[in-house]
Amino acid sequence: MSPLYVVGAGPGDPKLLTLKALELLQEADVVAYGDLVPEDIVALAKGAARVRIGQRREEHERAVEALIEEAREKRVVVLKNGDPTIFGRGLEICRKAEARGVPCEVVPGVSSFTAAAALHRIELTDGKELRHVALLAYPHFGPDVVSNIRADTLVIFMMGNKLVEVANALRETCPSGEVYICINVSRGGSCRRATIEELPSYAGQRPALIIVRRCWRPDPAK
Amino acid sequence: MSPLYVVGAGPGDPKLLTLKALELLQEADVVAYGDLVPEDIVALAKGAARVRIGQRREEHERAVEALIEEAREKRVVVLKNGDPTIFGRGLEICRKAEARGVPCEVVPGVSSFTAAAALHRIELTDGKELRHVALLAYPHFGPDVVSNIRADTLVIFMMGNKLVEVANALRETCPSGEVYICINVSRGGSCRRATIEELPSYAGQRPALIIVRRCWRPDPAK
Q: Which residues pair with B79 in a beta bridge?
């Protein structure tokens, strides 16, 4: 039985796929993918049947169960936007498959946050003032979480639908942080400098990545 | 003038290079690389002259200056282990090049920490107890930094030469964290579960990546 492969599709640009991902797509009998994986990447699996996976948890779980069963006979590739281990549930799929006796492998990919940093020239760390990076995702995020994490740079992975909450959390915990909102980073999209107040106006543009540099708390002594 | 390219070489396995990286290597006149980039990746730049870049800051800076000058006439690729924007000074090289009128691009790559998570099955986040990840690197790291960053999962990028300090910091701030030490993750290496006390015994095995899950402070009420 060939393994079920959970494969990082990278940030969107097909050239940012790994050689391994391309090879697995070309050999696949079935390719499964969510909304965020672009059509021209799915199309690289030329001979494969296509399965679109819904966003909602129940849809996702039903689709994964069916794919695990198919993997007993066919070469199945599940494409995950970015890297499957950064908020991607990639290992969860493999745990389920293996519990049913289906071997499974996760293939890492280029994450959208490093693509945003590289392509839009946002230094996440500089070896001086910016010493560390914290990665957060909705829904596991709120003012309490942001105020507990004291990293110089924050990266927030989200769907663009909780921007009011993000703005509130940032206003409280790093009001003078340098905020960027990134959309479609490797497909002609952008990372725009925004004020905290402007963030909610980007609602609905998904997926979004918010990068905040110099997320420092106001000095209580002042 | 073609741009100077600063390219993520990924975690070590040549199959985890991006299609873009392979293409740039195949077209390169000059390929520059540090100690951590494996020989079989450098060898993909078949026609290229090779430049080995030293680890020390002065050597690195001298080499970068020479490469920027060469990029005026030749296609130069600078390979960076993993992704060039995660503690990789990738954007710093481009800033210097552009300051001298040489165009420059950074090509993201698969980072070694997501490769460790994918290949060695270490869930960085689980959507429940593990809600966020913090990325740290030596030398910008110490007990004070670790105790300030309250992320559920910590990833420490390092050279394997400060393990006593790491152990001290972890003992103070998350004594019951699940610690893994990862070496050569995509080239037959391993991520081993270790106790905090065992960490110093791995000294000298570089590069090392330390992943700590459930880095929670002891509850002061108890």
A: B7, B33
Asked if residue A21 is part of any domain, the answer here is yes
Low-confidence stretches of chain B (pLDDT beneath 70): 140-141, 160, 206-207, 219-222
- Cβ contacts of A26 on chain B, cutoff 8 Å: none
Last residue within a domain, chosen from A107, A139, A164 = A107
Pick the more confident residue, B151 or A50: A50
Shortest distance between the Cα of A40 and any Cα of chain B, in A, equals 14
CA distances from B20 to A24, A117, B8, B24, B198 (A): 17, 17, 10, 6, 40
Of the candidates A107, A122, A138, which is a domain's last residue?
Answer: A107
Rounded-to-integer distance, Cα A69 and Cα A146, Å: 40
Asked if residue A158 has pLDDT above 90, the reply is no
pLDDT tens-digit readout, A99-145: 999 999 999 999 999 999 999 999 999 888 888 999 998 776 677 77
Residue A62 φ then ψ, to 5°: -60, -45
Contact A83 B123 (CB under 8 A): no
Residues A9 and A92 in one domain: yes
Whether the model pTM is above 0.90: yes
Compute the nearest-CA separation of A216 from chain B (Å).
12
Question: SS3 for B196?
Answer: helix
Residues B100 and B117 placed together within one structural domain of the fold:
no
Cβ neighbour number for residue A166 with a 10 Å cutoff: 28
Give just the sign of the alpha carbon dihedral A168, A171, A174, A177. Answer: positive
Number of domains observed in the structure of chain B? 2
> What are B35's strand-pairing partners?
none
Q: Look up residue A51 and give its two tokens.
A: 């399965």
B116 and B161 share one domain: yes
Q: Look at residue B199 and tell me if it is in a domain.
A: yes
What is the spatial distance between Cα B85 and Cα B117, in angstroms, rounded to a whole number?
Answer: 19
